[in-house]
Design a protein that fits this description.
Spore Coat Polysaccharide Biosynthesis Protein SpsA, Chain A, globular, 13 helices, alpha/beta, 8-stranded mixed beta sheet
Length: about 400
């Protein structure tokens, strides 16, 4: 039997990367197993199409908004312009200092099922949702929509399909960033767009295992009875979307990724804004670990097939990626071997997701570098906060320097 020869100096690199990418391997095995399981149906199914008999759900849409005068009208318009129209859309203005409320009132003249609520104090997303749950009768399914997220025309129709399974309490779609016009905005878009698409690819596998690490907080759909059961979006972390995902899985419910439900979100378009955004995301992940602690053992699939491998992967990869830059000047062969292997995996991912994006490889690596620093920074920041006695995060909105100056 012929043996594959691996140079001795590359063996530890390959072994190390095998450990670092363990969560990706788990996802690939999951998708491979599902493909093989479904293969007979694909090979032998009848060519005659059977019409779908999906239940059409009554849907409410809640849009918490703070200083969103640029986006809110179009977001409301997209929410009402659906193939499956919502019964009502509720905008809760969190004491905005711009013309958000004025734009909502303008939209109300066109859409009679639009309800507008206002708060006297800036309280943040989670408290806004709780206020609506307490004061407004909602439909069977509730979509919590960020005021800078634009739904595709069939979004509600697609996102609600998984609720035919009574165990499903959250359905999450494919949310990708909007391209910005300024230089840093374009760099951030091309780099983060690849990362988001890759995460959606992995989310498919996590969904099959009922182990999604985080639903899309900008446009997820919830069974309203579940939202009321848990008291709305949880407080105490900067990532209430991750927090409520873990709560659902710990309670034995299902969360599902619905690939065909597409949305576009207007994420940060400046270097500073993007940095603040990803630090909030990464810090929120560590905050959830602190908040949930042993509770997460109730969601064994989440813990053992997603969280543990993912945190090992992310910490290992981020530390390795950054350290190899310095190791290159000390012992270049090991650093070169690492970056070549990483480049190979990155190219394979780009080609699979969209080969045309290969021209944006420098942007992708810039984001890899930026996110690696942010991940390590967030880990230490949260650790030091915990040691210092902090046990609760989150709160009011922080929109400073979020969009590019050009777009303001």
């Amino acid at each position: 039997m012929a043996l594959i020869y691996v140079p001795e100096n590359l063996t530890p690199i390959i072994a190390f990367l095998g450990i670092v990418f363990s969560s990706i391997v788990i996802d690939l095995i999951t998708l491979g197993a599902v493909f093989i399981w479904k293969l007979p149906d694909k090979l032998f199914k009848s060519k005659e199409k059977i019409p779908e008999k999906d239940k059409k759900y009554n849907v409410s849409v809640i849009i918490p908004a703070y200083n969103e005068e640029e986006n809110i009208y179009q977001v409301i318009y997209r929410a009402f312009s659906q193939t499956l129209k919502p019964k009502k859309v509720i905008v809760i203005d969190d004491n905005s200092t711009d013309n958000t409320l004025k734009e909502c009132l303008r939209a109300q003249t066109k859409f009679k099922n639009l309800k507008i609520m206002s708060r006297c104090n800036n309280s943040g997303k989670a408290k806004n949702i709780t206020t609506v749950l307490e004061k407004v009768p909602l439909e069977e399914i509730t979509i919590i929509l960020d005021a800078d997220t634009f739904l595709s025309k069939k979004y509600i129709e697609e996102i609600t399909k998984p609720f035919s399974n009574k165990k499903v309490v959250i359905s999450t779609g494919t949310s990708l960033p909007v391209k910005h016009g300024n230089f840093w905005g374009r760099v951030i878009f091309h780099g983060s767009d690849f990362s988001f698409r890759f995460f959606c690819f992995r989310k498919r596998a996590q969904s099959y295992r009922n182990a999604i690490s985080v639903v899309t907080g900008d446009s997820a759909a919830y069974r309203t009875s579940f939202l009321k059961e848990v008291g709305g979006l949880p407080e105490g972390t900067q990532t209430e979307d991750m927090d409520i995902t873990w709560i659902a899985l710990e309670k034995g419910y299902r969360t599902v990724y619905q690939q065909k439900a597409h949305a576009k979100s207007k994420d940060a378009g400046t270097f500073r804004g993007h940095w603040k955004q990803i630090v909030r995301w990464f810090s929120g992940g560590f905050q959830c670990l602190i908040k949930h602690r042993t509770k997460v053992f109730k969601a064994k699939s989440l813990l053992f097939t997603t969280l543990i491998p993912s945190y090992i992967d992310s910490l290992g990869y981020s530390a390795s990626f950054l350290s190899m830059i310095f190791i290159f000047f000390i012992y270049s062969p090991i650093a070169i071997a690492f970056f070549l292997t990483d480049l190979l995996f990155t190219l394979i991912a780009i080609i699979y997701l969209d080969w045309k994006k290969i021209i944006y490889l420098p942007h992708i690596y810039f984001i890899k570098f930026m996110w690696s620093i942010a991940y390590i920074y967030s880990a230490f920041k949260t650790l030091f906060q915990f040691i210092g006695g902090k046990r609760s995060w989150g709160g009011a909105w922080d929109r400073e320097d979020f969009y590019s100056k050009k777009e303001k």
